[in-house]
Specification:
The chain is an alpha+beta fold. It has five helices and nine strands, in the order αααβββββββααββ. Strand 4 (97-105) and strand 5 form a beta hairpin. The longest helix has 26 residues, at 39-64.
């Protein structure tokens, strides 16, 4: 029997990394304020700066995680994204990735990962383990993580293109130099 409401438990679980960064920042602030000598306040300052950077990244990561359920499992291991769905699935290596799009189709959002050879991998945003895609996408060269999180929270964008009735295809990231070269 739990004495904490399920909604509060879900919120605390979602933001547990941000809360941990806040606790480390509080410890750093306490050491900075009440430490004596040179070593303890310096350690407090280092902890405070570390906690601020960690907290900002953790907050973005928690905003990237989406509520809801979609079929399939996402796994990210050693620069490879795997999606195992009930009907479709596949693998894509991050070095082979040419572009990332966010497809909105009939109210469902899907990551559309395109390899350099044209193969596509579609991953529902709410799939189990899809929050691991944030760190994978953040490691790509030129990826703007703030724009990545903003794309998930925004309904429409000026760079979107309507591809069919109730479908919007939004470009999130493209590898520099990717594409057809005409000579």
């Amino acid at each position: 029997m739990s004495f904490i409401r399920p909604e509060i438990t879900a919120t605390l679980t979602t933001h547990r990394e941000t809360i941990a960064a806040g606790l480390v920042g509080g410890l750093g602030l306490w050491l900075l304020a009440f430490g004596s000598g040179y070593v303890v306040p310096t350690l407090g300052l280092i902890l405070l700066v570390f906690a601020l950077a960690w907290g900002a990244q953790a907050l973005r990561r928690s905003r990237f995680q989406q509520d809801g359920e979609a079929p399939g499992i996402v796994r990210v291991t050693e620069a490879q994204v795997a999606y195992l769905g009930p009907r479709t699935g596949g693998f894509v290596g991050l070095p082979d990735l040419a572009e990332i799009r966010l497809l909105t189709l009939r109210g469902r959002r899907i990551w559309k990962l395109k390899q350099g050879d044209g193969q596509l991998l579609h991953i529902p945003v709410e799939a189990d383990g899809a929050e691991a895609l944030f760190d994978a996408f953040a490691s790509l060269p030129g990826m703007d993580t703030a724009a990545l999180v903003a794309a998930l929270s925004a309904e429409g964008s000026t760079d979107s293109k309507v591809i069919a009735l109730n479908a919007v295809d939004r470009l999130i990231w493209a590898r520099a130099g990717a594409g057809v070269v005409v000579r």
